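Pasting as-is:
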Amino acid sequence: MNLLRHFFWLSMAIVLPWSIVGHSAESYPTKPVRLLVGFAPGGSTDIVARLIAPKLSQSLGQQVIVDNRPGAGGAIAADVMLKSPPDGHTLLVCTTGLQSIQPFLQRMAFEPADIVPVTLIGNTPYIALVNASLPIHNVKELIAYAKANPGKLNFASSGNGTAGHLAGEMFKLRTGVDIVHVPYKGTGQAMADLLGGQVSLIFDQPVSSMQHVKSGKLRILGVAASRRLEALPNVPTFAEQGISSFEPVAWVGLCASKGTPPSVLARLARDTTEALKQPAVAKRLSDDGIEVIGGSPEKFREFLVLDRKKWGGVIKDAKVTAN
């Protein structure tokens, strides 16, 4: 009898955890889901969140509410999530800066491992843009002009240690050109001075600058990607113009708190990936220069390892600091 009792409790110890995991996925969600965005309404990250939120509301059977908590490059929103129960009812739209760059530049109130990947929503290659008044029409001409006029060209960014800043530093490392960095407090100010001719160049995401390209005020020199963007089929990549290994990418993903049940993470990854496949969603993201990805938490985790290695290397080699 004692032996039978021993085997009974041993079998329960094995089966019960899997039963709990299965139950977590089956019962989730039990209330509205909060989708935190670490940036102000209207920005590219916010646009992505508001695009997928209603689709997730439909698949999850609970309202998904976008909650903007701007500041500190997304760290404020992350802190709000991490102070909430790790049950999948409070999620974060995570970005390159928060997950792959900030940990190398400053002490944070949490560890990167406290935020776990759900699915990689999509990524956006950077494009190089100049004021249309400059006699520069492609990447080769940019390099030639910079080498013929050392220190004369400069590039703007939304601040020290931002992805746009590091994209410029990566370009300098790959080409050996001397281009001065001019940091601003936000993309809006940087773009205004580029349009005004106070700065020469910017490495930016297509969604932020296409209106100025269409108006003829800015000129795109190249796309930092392995292949041309669907939204910019006539713009060659940097690789096509002789600059290899230059692919700075801004990405946006869905993240949760450490301790969230794996079954809940898998459910969220599956439903988000399905939402991204919907034609209206895919087209809107493509029009903004975002390549739709989706996939499992494991796939996102593997991507993060390589992404952090890339940005960490640029920060080290270019001796970048946050201030």
